[in-house]
Every structure is written in C-alpha cells, then in structure tokens.
C-alpha cells in the first residue's frame, strides 16, 4: 500500500492544472473504495485483537485508521501544496472571467473534507467536526487567495477621495466571492471567510464609510450608495456597527420631519383647514417615504422600522413641532379627519374634487399622525365633538365612511397599546384601551341614533307634507352624545304649524318610551325656510331665497313675517323681541347681529327699532345662518382642553409621588426626566405642568424640598 501511494505521488508531481486535480480526486475516490473494502475484511480483527492491543499500547491503531494515516503522511502532506496552488490558479482564472470546470474544485474540497486522520493534533478540530486537514490545507489557502485578489483590485481606491468608488467595487467583489464560496467552500467555512474579508477591507475603513453615509443621507440622491453601505455593514456579526448606521439614518429622518414641516404662521391661503391638510399629508408622506426606503434599501429591517417610528413620534410631539403646527398632533389628526369626513359641498375650503374616492387613503394619513401622538385621549374628545357636529348638521360625507373611520381609529389606538405577555401594561395604557373601546362604541351608537331617527321621521311624512313643509327628527341618547349640552335655558316660539308637529312627535315618542326623559335641543336644531321679500329686485326675487336658520332665528323672523301676530311693516325693539318670544337677552342679541349682518333684518330709518329688509338681495339663493356660533365651538373646545389639562396634571402628580416614594429623594432634572420617560407614550410633559404639580404636592405635604439643596425633592411619609 505504501509503495502504491508513493507511485501516485510521483505521477501527480509531473501534472498540473485541471489534469492534476482530476488525477488526485480520482485516486482519492479509488482509495476510499479500497479503504472501505479493507475495513470490512479486517472488521473482526479490529474489533478483537487491535482493540485489546490499543488498551495496552495507545500507539496501536486499527487497520482502517492506519490506511488513512498512510495516505496523509506519504501522499497528502507532500502533495497538498502543489494541488492547492493549481486549484487556486483555476479559481483565479474564473475570477478573471475565463470558463473552467467548476466541478473539479467542488470535488476537491469534498475530498479534503473527507480526509480525517486520527491521532494527528494538527488535524483535530473538534469544534469543526474534526476538519483540521480541510481547514489547514484548503480553507485557509482559499481565503488568503480571495483576500489577495480583492486587495489587488481595491488597493488604489482606498483613499478618502475615492471612497464612493471603493465601496461600490468592494460590494461587487464581495457578492461575487460570496456566490463563489457557496460553491467551493463547506457551509461552516462561510463565516470565517466573511469575517476575514470584513476585518481586512471594512474594519479599517469604517470611519470613511460612515462619513460617506452622512453625505449620502444629507444629499438624499444616492439611494444605491446607501443600499450598498447597508449591505456591507450587515456583514458584521457585531450589531454595534450597523447601529451607528441606523443612528445616522434616524437622525437625518428627524431633521427632515422637523425642519421641512409646514408652519401655521406661513400659511396664508385657505386658512387653518387647508394648513391642517398640508401638515398631516406632509407628516404621513414623510413617514411612509422613510418606511419605503427601509423596505427598498435596508431589506425591511425591523430594527430600522421600530426606531424610525419611535423617532417620528418623538419629533411630532416636540415643543418645536407644536409651535409649527399651532396645535398638538392629536388635535391636528382630529381636525384632519373632520375635513376628510365632511361633505365637500358644505366645506368652505376646496380640498379637491376627488376626495370621495381617496377618503380612506386620506384617513390612513391621519392614522399615521394619531399613532405617533402621545395624547390620544385628547384626540377622542375632539373627534367626538366634530362627529357630533357632522351628524347633527347633516354634513357627513357618508355614514358608511364614518363607520370605516371609527374602525380605523380603534385599530390604530389598540396597536399603540403595549402588552407584556398575558399581563396588562401600565394603568394609563389600560385607561387608553378602555377609552378606545368606549369611544368606538359611543360613535357607533351615535350613527345608529341618526339612522333610527331618519326611519322614525318617515312616519310623519304624510302629516307634515299637508302642512307644506318637511321635518327630520333626530333622537339622541344622552349617555352617548356626551359633547352635546342638554341644558336648555332658552325657549323658542315656533310657528303654530311647526309647533303642532313637534308636540305631536314628542307625545308619540313619550308614549312609546315612557321611562325616558324627552328634551328638545334647540341649540342644535335648524329649519329651512323659503322666504320672499316684496320689494326685492334681485335675480331670485320671484322664486325667493332659501334660508337655513336655527330655532332662535326662526322665532325672531316669525315675529316679522307671521300675519297672525302683526299686520303690515313690523318694527320691534330688542326688548320687545325678548318679551314676545321669551328668549334670553344674550341669545337674542347674538341672533339679531347675525340676521342684520346678513341684511335680512335692518334698523328702521328712524333707528327706533328693527324691521325686515323688504329690498333684500343676494347673489346666492341658498344662505345658511344656522351653524352653531364660533363662540360656542370655542367654549366647547376650551372645556375639553381644561379637562385634558387636569387629567395630565393628575397623572404627573401620581408619577412624582410614586417615584419619590421609591427613591426617597431626587434632583429636579432627574425627576423631570423620569416622569417624562414614564409618560412619553401618552403625552408630552411640559416644564410648566411639572412645576405646577410640584407646587401642589408640596402644598399638600406629600413631598418637600431638601433643606440643604432646594433643587432636591424628598418624599414625606404620612
């Protein structure tokens, strides 16, 4: 056997190139077959005699192992350098673009893997399945050859001025080598190969690569370059390398979000409604543009997505962003939803003719801002306030779209509520979840009330049609319509025919629902009146004008137009008007201002009172004066702001006392940061709210200032 192996060695030394590789592989395969046959023939000897001898003398080996050692010592060690140099030359030829028989390299590396001589320390790589011979004589030379080849190609480019080209060339070479390694290396050799290339060509240039990434992020016009850098940095097993690239990405994203967002001070066209639309669309589009970048360039990396959303939320909730927007992001999202869901025919701002087709897409943009908002409770309050107005004014684009919006809001809020295993999160998270469920159910009930009210109104169609007018009754459940003020201090005097219909409806409803208390909400009602002015010469003088009025305005105009009350031209003072219809003086004054500004009423020539404008003229036939006054809107919104501010301060006081109870004492800045962190997912902590909460806790004796350092607070146990 020894002579045979030496003859194989002598023949191999005179060969080169593919012929050498083919000869060596063929001889190894023949040797493997012979080795297997001899092992079977001497199996009994190995099991009995050799095994006993090995116990007495460790230098004894079985016949099968002896054959492998003969091949290793007399052929492999003396021939491997010659074989590998020819194999690497063949691989280099493939790197240069020449066609080779790749099966020779594949068969060769498998032959090296199969060679596992026992008792030789150099070949015992237990952590790599005893692949010592393969590692030392095949893997290492192959990796060194790849490093040498790439170094030759990139040596002249490893300068700061050529770094962009270096990154591109290096990426292409790495891709080629990775594909080649999968064919010519064992699977557990890929990691050592990648680590060797990373340390040689990336680690030393990592600073220049980061600088190039900063430049690409700043210019924003080299997505291919960013994709290449991400692919190179992803090769490192150390997550800190990629984390620094992520930090640069989110820093640039935050800068883009903050600096380029529209400012309300710069908005001059279209008012706040158009600005709210522009701001929400910008914020949503910016977020989605960066998410698309992550999906396209950064392989949809979940860490990048999570960090981007966190930074987006932090940027949107900063004081700087609040000053730009003029409102909190929660209220901005609520205002934008109101713009989208309102019927375009009744909106004063022009939001485009295709809004109906794109309403759901626009709502998704609002949901992006809502998801990032830390103050979702405030969003619920303003959204319900706007929903109430839309439903009562019949300005909703579609009830089906309203239901879709409610489902989207609930889903968005629930996605932002954190869960920890099977346990619920913090008390505030649980409160937010309950608020989302309650808001969703109340909004659905409000829509149901509108649908049921429309069906009930049809029962009175025949009766009111004979009277010459139509009515639409809405029955609102007091527990659901929380933003509606049910306290009616003012009374109204309606025309006798309309009053009869209202009384009849009230009696029928009370008979059907005797356990319920029935109240008319005149402040939220309106009437459509067809009115002709005798001396008008305008384009609509003959057919008359359509006026949309609230009940107070109807009561006032009824005094001037109802012949059963007065004959001829009627002139009344504000005091007489209040006395005749028993209306509050402040409400009467407000409505008289509205009617006189619209030129429907006017002051008499002698200034003794007010009369109807017989010569009224308008370019518009349809005139709506019924809307709830802006002052009432502001009052309702101010009430919501006050409730929300009180809730925030209670949360802040709870956190301060809880933190100090655990820490016993803490400095002003550290305590502020701790409270801010605990509430960052729900609302933004302001310095004024924090100081006010501190003062209240000190006044109550729950905490106190340190005697030596007034900037340190201590908990006072009861």
Task: Please summarize what this structure is.
With 718 residues, the protein is mainly α. Helices cover 64% and strands 5% of the residues.
What does this 3D model show about the protein?
With 718 residues, the protein is mainly alpha-helical. Helix content is 64%, strand content 5%. It has helices at 2-13, 17-41, 43-56, 63-95, 102-114, 132-154, 163-184, 190-201, 206-219, 223-233, 239-259, 271-297, 302-316, 319-325, 329-341, 359-372, 376-392, 399-416, 427-457, 461-467, 496-512, 551-561, 574-581, 585-597, 630-663, 668-678, 687-700, and strands at residues 419-420, 423-424, 527-531, 545-549, 601-603, 610-612, 622-624, 665-667, 703-705, 712-715. Helix 23 packs across helix 24 (585-597). The chain is elongated and about 135 Å long.
Question: What's the structural blueprint in terms of helices and strands?
Answer:
Elements: H1 2-13, H2 17-41, H3 43-56, H4 63-95, H5 102-114, H6 132-154, H7 163-184, H8 190-201, H9 206-219, H10 223-233, H11 239-259, H12 271-297, H13 302-316, H14 319-325, H15 329-341, H16 359-372, H17 376-392, H18 399-416, E1 419-420, E2 423-424, H19 427-457, H20 461-467, H21 496-512, E3 527-531, E4 545-549, H22 551-561, H23 574-581, H24 585-597, E5 601-603, E6 610-612, E7 622-624, H25 630-663, E8 665-667, H26 668-678, H27 687-700, E9 703-705, E10 712-715
Parallel strand pairs: 4-7
Antiparallel strand pairs: 1-2, 3-4, 5-6, 8-10, 9-10
Helix pairs in contact: 1-4, 2-4, 2-5, 4-6, 5-6, 6-7, 6-8, 7-8, 7-10, 9-10, 9-11, 11-13, 12-13, 12-15, 12-16, 15-16, 15-17, 16-18, 17-19, 17-25, 18-19, 23-24, 25-26, 25-27
């Amino acid at each position: 056997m020894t002579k045979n192996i030496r003859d194989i060695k002598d023949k191999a030394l005179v060969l080169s190139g593919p012929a050498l590789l083919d000869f060596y592989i063929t001889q190894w395969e023949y040797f493997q077959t012979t080795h297997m046959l001899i092992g079977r023939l001497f199996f009994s000897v190995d099991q009995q005699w050799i095994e006993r001898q090995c116990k007495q003398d460790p230098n004894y080996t079985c016949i099968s192992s002896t054959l492998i050692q003969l091949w290793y010592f007399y052929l492999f060690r003396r021939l491997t350098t010659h074989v590998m140099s020819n194999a690497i030359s063949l691989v280099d030829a493939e790197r240069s673009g020449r066609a080779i028989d790749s099966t020779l390299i594949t068969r060769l590396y498998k032959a090296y893997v199969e060679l596992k001589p026992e008792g030789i320390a150099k070949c015992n790589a237990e952590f790599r399945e005893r692949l010592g011979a393969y590692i030392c004589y095949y893997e290492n030379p192959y990796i060194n050859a790849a490093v040498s080849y790439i170094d030759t190609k990139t040596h002249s480019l490893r300068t700061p001025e050529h770094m962009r080209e270096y990154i591109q060339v290096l990426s292409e070479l790495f891709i080629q080598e990775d594909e080649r390694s999968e064919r010519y290396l064992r699977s557990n050799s890929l990691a050592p190969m990648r680590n060797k290339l990373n340390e040689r060509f990336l680690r030393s240039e990592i600073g220049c690569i980061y600088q190039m990434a900063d430049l690409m992020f700043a210019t924003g016009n080299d997505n291919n370059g960013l994709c290449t850098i991400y692919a190179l940095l992803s090769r490192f097993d150390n997550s800190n390398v990629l984390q620094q690239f992520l930090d640069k990405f989110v820093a640039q994203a935050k800068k883009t979000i903050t600096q380029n967002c529209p400012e309300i001070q710069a908005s001059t066209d279209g008012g706040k409604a158009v600005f709210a639309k522009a701001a929400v669309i910008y914020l949503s589009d910016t977020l989605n543009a960066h998410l698309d970048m992550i999906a396209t360039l950064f392989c949809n990396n979940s860490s990048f997505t999570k960090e981007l959303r966190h930074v987006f939320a932090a940027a949107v909730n900063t004081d700087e962003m609040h000053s730009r927007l003029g409102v909190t992001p929660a209220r901005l999202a609520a205002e934008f939803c109101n713009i989208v869901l309102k019927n375009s025919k009744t909106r004063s701002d022009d939001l485009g003719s295709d809004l109906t087709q794109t309403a759901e897409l626009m709502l998704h943009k609002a949901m992006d801002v809502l998801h990032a908002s830390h103050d979702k409770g405030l969003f619920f309050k303003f959204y319900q306030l706007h929903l109430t107005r839309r439903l009562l004014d019949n300005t909703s684009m579609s009830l089906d779209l309203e239901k879709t919006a409610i489902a989207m809001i609930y889903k968005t809020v629930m996605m932002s509520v954190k869960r920890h295993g099977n346990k619920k999160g913090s008390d505030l998270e649980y409160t937010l979840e309950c608020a989302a469920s309650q808001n969703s159910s109340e909004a659905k009930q409000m829509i149901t009330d509108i649908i049921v009210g429309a069906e009930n109104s049809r029962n009175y169609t025949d009766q009111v049609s004979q009277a010459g007018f139509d009515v639409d009754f809405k029955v609102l459940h007091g527990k659901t319509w929380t933003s509606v003020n049910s306290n009616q201090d003012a009374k109204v005097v309606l025309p006798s025919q309309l009053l009869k219909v209202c009384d009849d409806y009230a009696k029928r409803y009370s008979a059907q629902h005797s356990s319920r208390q029935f109240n008319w909400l005149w402040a939220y009602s309106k009437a459509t009146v067809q009115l002709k002015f005798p001396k008008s010469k305008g384009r609509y003088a003959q057919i008359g004008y359509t006026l949309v009025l609230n009940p107070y305005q109807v009561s006032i105009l009824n005094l001037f137009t109802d012949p059963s009350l007065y004959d001829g031209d009627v002139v009344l003072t504000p005091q007489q008007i209040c006395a005749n219809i028993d209306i509050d003086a402040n409400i009467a004054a407000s409505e008289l201002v509205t009617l006189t500004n619209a030129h429907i009423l006017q002051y008499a020539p002698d200034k003794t009172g007010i009369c109807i404008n017989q010569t009224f003229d308008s370019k518009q036939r349809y005139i709506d004066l019924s809307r709830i006054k802006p002052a009432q809107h502001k009052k309702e919104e101010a009430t919501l702001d006050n409730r929300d501010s009180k809730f925030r301060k209670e949360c802040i006081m709870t956190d301060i006392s809880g933190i100090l109870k655990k820490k016993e004492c803490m400095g002003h800045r550290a305590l502020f940061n701790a409270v801010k962190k605990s509430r960052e997912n729900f609302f933004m902590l302001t310095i004024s709210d924090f100081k006010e909460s501190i003062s209240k806790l000190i006044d109550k004796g729950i905490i106190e200032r340190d005697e030596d350092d007034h900037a340190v607070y201590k908990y006072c146990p009861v």
